[in-house]
């Protein structure tokens, strides 16, 4: 899978597919969750979502700053 977005005259952005190992993922995850300069909090409830669609819906309903009831 690759991706990108054409933004007309500004060129947009594109990327090639890449893979990381489970060890690399775990290292990256640990770094972003423990770096004090980043305001990232792990939400355990999202692990229970059975599909990407359900996960995205839960993220938007719970953490969308445009909604009054968001955290």
3D architecture notes:
β1 and β2 form a beta hairpin. Helix content is 35%, strand content 8%. It has two helices and two strands; from the N terminus they run ββαα. By secondary structure, it is mainly alpha-helical. It has one domain (3-63). The model has no long low-confidence stretch (mean pLDDT 84). The chain has helices at residues 22-34, 52-63, and strands at 3-5, 13-15. It has a two-stranded antiparallel sheet with strand order 1-2. It is extended, with a radius of gyration of 16 Å.
Element layout with pairings:
Layout: E1 3-5, E2 13-15, H1 22-34, H2 52-63
Antiparallel strand pairs: 1-2
Short description:
The protein is built from two helices and two strands, in the order ββαα. With 71 residues, it is mainly α. The longest helix has 13 residues, at 22-34.
Beta strand count = 2
Strand content: 5-15%
* Unreliable residue stretches: none
Biggest beta sheet attributes: 2 strands, antiparallel
Number of helices: 2
Throw out a few tags for this protein:
single chain; 71 residues; 2 strands; mainly alpha; 8% strand
């Amino acid at each position: 899978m690759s991706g990108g977005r054409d933004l007309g005259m500004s060129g947009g952005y594109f990327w090639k597919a890449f893979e990381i190992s489970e060890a690399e993922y775990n290292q990256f995850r640990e770094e972003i969750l423990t770096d004090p300069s980043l305001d990232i909090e792990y939400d355990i409830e999202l692990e229970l979502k059975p599909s990407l669609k359900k996960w995205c819906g839960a993220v938007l309903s719970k953490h969308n700053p445009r909604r009054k009831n968001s955290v």
